[in-house]
UniProtKB/TrEMBL annotation:
The lineage of its organism: Bacteria, Pseudomonadati, Pseudomonadota, Gammaproteobacteria, Enterobacterales. Mg(2+) binds at S173, T193. Its main location: cytoplasm. The keyword Nucleotide-binding applies. It comes from Buchnera aphidicola subsp. Rhopalosiphum maidis. Residues 160-332 form the OBG-type G domain. The keyword Signal does not apply. This is GTPase Obg. One of its GO terms (biological process) is ribosome biogenesis. It holds the Pfam family MMR_HSR1. SUPFAM superfamilies: Obg GTP-binding protein N-terminal domain, P-loop containing nucleoside triphosphate hydrolases. The gene is cgtA.
C-alpha cells in the first residue's frame, strides 16, 4: 500500500430540519390548537483515529464527506428525524489543520480518539413552541440552521520514541532491521527507503518504537533528492540517532556528511535540530581499528561539544546491544 502522509478534504455537516406550522383538525375538536413539530438536528462529521491504519491513501481519492440533513417537523407534534453522523477513520498520529486559518484543530495521538470536526445545524422550532396565553394560534416557526463546512488538511506524523536520520546508504535501514522486525529494504544504492517505516525494539529495560526515514542529501531543503518532507515524522521522537557512514563510497567524508545533515535539519526546523541527538558511527567493520580513533578525534574537534558516540556495525550487529540498552534507559528517565 502506498504511503500517503498528507491530504486535503472537505467536510460538510448536515443542515437542521425546519420547524412545522400546523394546527390540529379533528372531528369534534374544532379548535385543537397548534401541533407543528420541531425539525431534526443535522448530522455531525467526526474524525476517529485507528491504529490499524498507517496511511491516508483512502482519503486521497474521496475528497468530500457530507453528513445527512435533519428532516423537517410535521403535524401532531412529530419531530423530524436527526441526520446521521458520519465518521472518518484516520491513522494514529494525524494532525488536523484548518486550511483557511492554518489553525491546528486537533491532534489524534491515541487509538479510538475522536474529534468533532463539523457540527450539524440546529433544528428549527415548530409553531407549538410559540403558543402562549395571548397567542393561541401562532403562525411562527424557525428554520433549521446550516451545518458547518470546512476544508481541512490532514497531516500524518508517525509516533515513535526514536528517529533515525543521515545520508543515503549510511545504514539506517540496516540498523532498524537488525534491532527490530521492521521489513526495511536494504540494498547497495541510494534511497532504498522511500517511505518512513516503524519498528518495535525490545530490551531488558523495556520497549521502544524506532522510525526509519529516507536519507537526507545536500540542498534537500530546496527539493533535492526526496526533499525533507519526511523529517516531520521525527517531530514526536524523544531522541534522534544520527547514523554516520565511516566509510562512504561517494568520495565524501564523515565530517562533511555530518555537516550536511545538521545544516538541512536546522533549515527545516530549529526545534527539531535542538532535540537530543546521538551520533552512531556505523560500518566499523570496514575500517582498520587504528583509523577509527583518528576519525573520532576529527569528529569531536569538528563538533566542539561533548556528545554521545556509538561505534557500531549494523550488518554485523556489533555494538547494537549497548546502543539499544542505553536508549531504553534514557527513555525511562
Amino acid at each position: 500500500m502506498k504511503f500517503i502522509d498528507q491530504t486535503i478534504i472537505q467536510v460538510i455537516a448536515g443542515n437542521g430540519g425546519n420547524g412545522c406550522i400546523n394546527f390540529r383538525r379533528e372531528k369534534y375538536i374544532p379548535k385543537g390548537g397548534p401541533d407543528g413539530g420541531d425539525g431534526g438536528d443535522g448530522g455531525n462529521v467526526w474524525l476517529e483515529s485507528n491504529d490499524n491504519l498507517n496511511t491516508l491513501i483512502d482519503l486521497r481519492f474521496k475528497k468530500i464527506f457530507q453528513a445527512s440533513h435533519g428532516e423537517n417537523g410535521s403535524g401532531r407534534n412529530c419531530s423530524g428525524k436527526k441526520g446521521n453522523d458520519i465518521k472518518i477513520y484516520v491513522p494514529v498520529g494525524t494532525k488536523i489543520i484548518n486550511c483557511e486559518t492554518r489553525e491546528i484543530i486537533g491532534d489524534l495521538i491515541e487509538h479510538k480518539q475522536k474529534i468533532l470536526i463539523a457540527k450539524g445545524g440546529w433544528h428549527g422550532l415548530g409553531n407549538t413552541r410559540f403558543k402562549s396565553s395571548i397567542n393561541r394560534t401562532p403562525r411562527q416557526r424557525t428554520l433549521g440552521s446550516i451545518g458547518e463546512k470546512r476544508n481541512i488538511q490532514l497531516e500524518l506524523i508517525l509516533i515513535a520514541d526514536v528517529g533515525t536520520l543521515g545520508m543515503p546508504n549510511a545504514g539506517k535501514s540496516t540498523l532498524v532491521k537488525s534491532i527490530s522486525r521492521a521489513r526495511t529494504k536494504v540494498a547497495n544504492y541510494p534511497f532504498t527507503t522511500i517511505n518512513p517505516i516503524l519498528g518495535s525494539v525490545s530490551t531488558q529495560n523495556g520497549k521502544f518504537i524506532i522510525a526509519d526515514i529516507p536519507g537526507i542529501i545536500k540542498n534537500a531543503s530546496q527539493g533535492s533528492g526526496l526533499g525533507i518532507n519526511f523529517l516531520k515524522h521525527l517531530e514526536r521522537c524523544k531522541i534522534l540517532l544520527h547514523i554516520v557512514d565511516l566509510c562512504p563510497t561517494n568520495y565524501s567524508n564523515p565530517i562533511e556528511n555530518i555537516e550536511i545533515v545538521l545544516n538541512e535539519l536546522k533549515k527545516y526546523n530549529p526545534l527539531l535540530y535542538k532535540k537530543p541527538r546521538w551520533l552512531v558511527l556505523n560500518k566499523i567493520d570496514l575500517i582498520e581499528s587504528s583509523e577509527i580513533g583518528k576519525i573520532i578525534d576529527k569528529i569531536k574537534k569538528f563538533l566542539k561539544i561533548e556528545d554521545k558516540f556509538y561505534l557500531i556495525s549494523a550488518i554485523k550487529k556489533t555494538g547494537i546491544k549497548k546502543l539499544c540498552s542505553d536508549i531504553s534507559f534514557y527513555l525511562k528517565g
